[in-house]
Amino acid sequence: MFRRELSGNHGMLFIFERDQPVCMWMKNTLIPLSVAFIDNQGGITNIADMQPQTLDSHCANQNVRFALEMPLGWFAKRGIKPGFKLRGQPFGTAPAH
């Protein structure tokens, strides 16, 4: 909130106590973001692009444990889509070797 910029590979990871319905909004957020909703096993369920200073709800399409906000288009530029699996902590899976 209130940030005017976000460096290329910096973001914010929201960790919830359990799998649950999650919606995000952009009140007091000055930059456009993309959010990936992530289940307990690190699987991306859906990704939403969000515009600054809006109250629109952007919701996970199923219960999730995490939400990762990155600069707008970050996931698309890297070919990351729903179904992509994140590995390592805190996603409960060992990193790929």
Characterization of this structure:
It is a single chain. This protein has 97 residues and is mostly beta strands. Helix content is 4%, strand content 35%. The chain has one helix at residues 74-77, and strands spanning 12-20, 23-24, 33-38, 44-50, 58-59, 64-71. The longest helix has 4 residues, at 74-77. It is globular. The termini are far apart. The mean pLDDT is 92.
User: How helix-rich are the residues, as a percent range?
Assistant: under 10%
Distance between the termini: 36 Å
Number of helices: 1
**Mean pLDDT figure:** 92
Backbone structural class: mainly beta
Please write the string of helix (H) and strand (E) elements: EEEEEEH
Query: Based on CA inertia axes, which overall geometry fits?
Result: globular
How much of the sequence lies in strands comes to 35-45%
Unreliable parts: none
Give me the oligomer status: single chain
| Biggest pleated-sheet summary | 4 strands, antiparallel
- Strand line-up across the major sheet: 1-6-3-4
**Tally of DSSP β-strands:** 6
Rg for CA atoms: 13 Å
What's a quick, concise take on this entry?
With 97 residues, this protein is mainly β. 4% of the residues lie in helices and 35% in strands. The chain is built from 1 helix and 6 strands.
Chart the SSEs and their pairings.
Elements: E1 12-20, E2 23-24, E3 33-38, E4 44-50, E5 58-59, E6 64-71, H1 74-77
Antiparallel strand pairs: 1-6, 2-5, 3-4, 3-6
